[in-house]
Design brief:
seven-stranded mixed β-sheet; four-stranded mixed β-sheet
Length: about 525
């Protein structure tokens, strides 16, 4: 009886110890993350933002009480992530779960917040029912609010939450991004604009007028014959330290009827003042063997090399790291100005270059005579004309104005400098950087929906240029695809022969070894038996 009491007491004591230890360590998170990109570990940028919170951050989760089974992993990932956020927020982050399907007042609140109903397929009593529900959240910080209307995946959840918290912290000082369209239709970039508006104040800029000084970053899409007045406004914006990312398109593409319209070389010559030489050209690179095309009312796969998928070797900057589905559509190669060109005054290099994207060494650059229709087969290019080309780069320099020497291009526009009431700037006071990407069409709505990494690439550049915080690395840690590597002819031959003859040979060798082993054991056994008989005699 005494032993039973001692056992019961020890059990209760052990249970209390486990309970108290759990209560003590519940606020300490320690996780071993063995994934390649550490996707289950908060990024240092997220930790820094959470530690710098100056007020309470409230997150309200609106979800249906009965989520379908396929949404359960997303629900668990969300709560795990929010627990880590809370642990690094010094007690300033708190979250609450609300069920709109149980309370009409909560349902009315979701409508006010702009969290929509979504459709779920629920299985009940061996029947599939379509029901409406919610799975989104809202963030409240001081007198500001942000939302994630629908949580449909969790790969980007840390980025989505951290970027919105950063936007809430900015408050009235929210950063501004300008969009300028040259030869491109603004409506073709609605998805891009919506994505930017999640984090920035976005406005369309007309280069014919003075570019607002409160623009933190100017994104230019496309090319056209620019008037000297437009070039002058852009030139002065850059020299004042304005940040510019230019998505070039020297050959306009109409992908509805597959026609092209190249620009004149002389209309692109002014870009040499900013460190690049751009000629109307299109690049073909066999990195994407097939693309889906509609014909006769059905989708077919056709070989098309004007869609260039960026390979791992073509990535030279973290802007594109781990973006395995980054595809440029009808890109153009960018040339740097003569590498040895120096400033005659300082005797130093005028421009410093940092590569971002390049093609493979099997790319072909075509100038003129474009035939971009997927169903029109072109002869393969000569091997001696295959090369590696620059598709995106950063140019850094203490830029000088293109209007300093009153070249022939601007000889009739001397009054631009005289009428500029803000004061004409001949040279930048400090070094500045411009990013040039040899493609603009790849960011249009159909292509950012087809290749999601295209939009991520653009957002990585914008976030790094505007905030300086490395939000790009949060995105870059997404789960990477691991497709089967393409084998060359010799590797395929070895694989086929290995399956055909290798397995029988292995079985044969195993049989010979087993037979030999049994034969040796039999001989040894026979010798031992004969020895025993002789000893018995």
């Amino acid at each position: 009886m005494r032993k039973e009491k001692m056992f019961l007491f020890a059990s209760v004591l052990a249970f209390l110890n486990i309970f108290l230890l759990n209560m003590f360590f519940r606020h300490f998170v320690y996780r071993v993350d063995l994934t390649q990109n550490r996707i289950y570990t908060l990024h240092p940028v997220t930790k820094e933002i959470l530690k710098n919170l100056k007020d309470y951050l409230t997150i309200e989760i609106y979800m249906s009480s009965k989520l379908p089974p396929e949404m359960s992993p997303y629900k668990q990932d969300l709560f795990d992530l929010l627990e880590e956020y809370r642990n690094y927020s010094n007690g300033l982050l708190r979250y609450t779960v609300y069920y709109p399907d149980k309370d009409p007042k909560i349902q009315a609140k979701t409508r006010r917040l702009g969290i929509p109903e979504i459709t779920f397929n629920v299985v009940e009593k061996d029947q599939v029912k379509v029901v409406n529900g919610h799975f989104g959240l809202a963030l409240f910080y001081k007198d500001k609010k942000e939302k994630i209307p629908v949580i449909s995946e969790t790969e980007n959840l840390e980025y989505d939450l951290t970027s919105r918290i950063l936007k809430l912290e900015e408050g009235e000082n929210i950063k501004s991004v300008g969009l300028a369209f040259l030869g491109q239709k603004q409506d073709d970039y609605s998805v891009l604009k919506s994505e930017l508006e999640k984090l920035y104040k976005v406005r369309v800029v007309n280069l014919s007028y003075k570019i607002p000084e409160n623009i933190n970053l100017l994104l230019i899409f496309g090319n056209k014959k620019m008037q000297p007045k437009e070039i002058y406004k852009l030139d002065q914006f850059i020299l004042k330290g304005g940040k510019v990312v230019w998505f070039l398109q020297p050959v306009s593409i109409n992908y509805e009827n597959f026609t092209t319209k190249p620009m004149f070389k002389k209309d692109l010559k002014f870009l040499e003042n900013y460190g690049i030489e751009l000629k109307p050209n299109l690049v073909k690179d066999p990195t994407l063997p097939f693309i889906p095309m509609m014909t006769g009312g059905r989708a077919v796969l056709v070989p098309y090399h004007y869609f260039v998928k960026i390979t791992k070797r073509g990535v030279h900057h973290h802007f594109a790291r781990n973006l395995e589905q980054l595809v440029l559509t009808w890109p153009s190669a960018i040339d740097t100005v003569v590498p040895n060109r120096v400033d005659t005054v300082s005797n130093k290099k005028k421009f410093n270059y940092q590569l971002i994207l390049t093609t493979t060494k099997m790319a072909f650059r075509k100038e003129g005579g474009y035939s971009i229709h997927p169903f029109v087969q072109e002869p393969p290019p000569p091997k001696e004309e295959l090369n590696e080309y620059i598709l995106a780069l950063i140019v850094e320099s203490k830029f000088k104005s293109a209007f300093v020497n009153d070249t022939n291009l601007f000889k009739n526009w001397k009054n631009l400098k005289e009428t500029d009431t803000t004061g004409f700037i001949k040279e930048a006071k400090e070094k500045n950087r411009i990013i040039f990407v040899g493609n603009a069409v790849f960011l249009q709505d159909p292509f950012v929906q087809m290749y999601k990494d295209n939009l991520d690439f653009m957002m990585n550049i914008v976030n790094a240029f505007v905030y300086g915080k490395d939000l790009t690395q949060i995105r870059a840690r997404e789960v990477a695809e691991r497709p089967i590597k393409k084998l060359n002819t010799f590797q395929r031959f070895l694989f086929q022969q290995g399956i055909t003859f290798g397995i029988p040979v292995i079985i044969l060798i195993f049989g010979i070894l087993r037979y030999t082993r049994r034969k040796i054991r039999k001989r040894i056994f026979t010798q031992q038996e004969e020895t025993k008989k002789e000893e018995g005699k």
